[in-house]
Amino acid sequence: MKLAIFASLLAVASAFAPTPLSKPSTALNVNELEIGATAPLGVFDPFNQLTLFPEKFERRRAVERKHGRISMVAVVGMLVHNAGIEIPGMISPSNDLAFSDIPDGFTGIFAVPTLGLLQILLVAGFIEGGIWPASNYSGDYGTGYLGQTLEGEKLKFKLDLELNQGRAAMLGITGAMIQEGIQGETLAEHIANANDSIIGPAHGCILIPGIV
After folding, report:
1. pTM of the predicted protein model
2. Would you say residue 6 has pLDDT above 60?
């Protein structure tokens, strides 16, 4: 869950869905108000925010997209680390501390040396301020392929997929953190303790296709 910890230092999830008020577009030449409005919910704005504050939609969509991307990385990191896959090498040679010595879950953040946490914050700040600036609301940082290879309905499908999976990841990583805070168990520990009556993999195993 170390990547989840890193991701949680970057952002707290915030999501707002579209409603047809105006037609802001991004560098990918798509109508942002149509992205993410998919069945079965379609447009979901229970607090009527986009009618009351339409001028805030562009920033909120950018925040939703970026936090969704961060949360997807966090979920993948949580699954990888809880599957027992660790980064090789030392996180702090002077303290004789290996990456594999850092516990999964919330407690892991307390095992990271202070200078290590500072490095994480500095790198996150550098990315947020320079490489992928928060002032760029388009979500297109010139590192993807969608705008170069897809268009029309195919492009919209992929952007819908990214946004909706980001929303699911925000809920997923938040739920995992709440579960761990309440039960005091990481995902692997929770599976191990709840798997006594389940026919399947060995206790504590998390299967990642192609890896484990």
Report:
1. 0.72
2. no
